[in-house]
Description:
With 248 residues, the protein is α/β, with parallel strands linked by helices. Helix content is 41%, strand content 17%. α1 crosses α6 (125-140).
Amino acid sequence: RLGLTEAEAMGRAEADLDSLVASMSPIAVDLLSSALRPLHVYAWDVQVDTAGLDRLRALNREHALVFLPSHRSYADPLLLADVLAEHDFPRNHVLGGDNLRFWPIAPLARRAGIVFIRRSFGDDEIYKLALREYLGFLLAKRFNLEWYMEGGRSRTGKLRPPRYGLLAYVAEAVARGRAEDAWLVPVAITYDQLREVSAMAAEQAGAAKKAEGLGWLAAYARGQLARIGTVHVRFAEPISLHAALPPG
């Protein structure tokens, strides 16, 4: 249908998989966490729903968890990673936009479980297949996943409309028997204050969004050095995909 030879299709699929696949090196995890911790550790006192975590830990002994947090700040995945590590959870494979694939963070991040995906892949059927199969593989191996269904940070503090593409791929993996089940975990991350608000307001008014890069990262870190309040991390009742899917 695509008008490609088998060799051309295979070459594109291999290239797409190579751009997606992440490893999980303990050394890389420690290095990345240490490098990025200044982006959030000074800014907020973190309050965690520990009762919710106890329930999830028992569930995680048998099933993969798919964490679906709200998205209000660049710090969201950093905070959540620290919370889960402090409570003895395995590190998530985190799906993030490839706008954050910049040197020197990206090579380290890919070795620490960060899966960079295109922000838009339209009608690229080969890329969709590669992503769908990779997610199925991760679930079959019972790796925990994490992504942000709003597709970007909220500019108003309210939830943005969800995007269901990745969730459909995960549901398909369960329906096809690649994984026995996957449990969806809605996560609320709520801040007293965000220093990003002024930049978000400017973007809403028409200002150009600053491109992510090393200079942007340094400036963001400088802005996060003083305490500005509390962040609350809460975990909702998990949802079994297997139970939610229609029979057959």
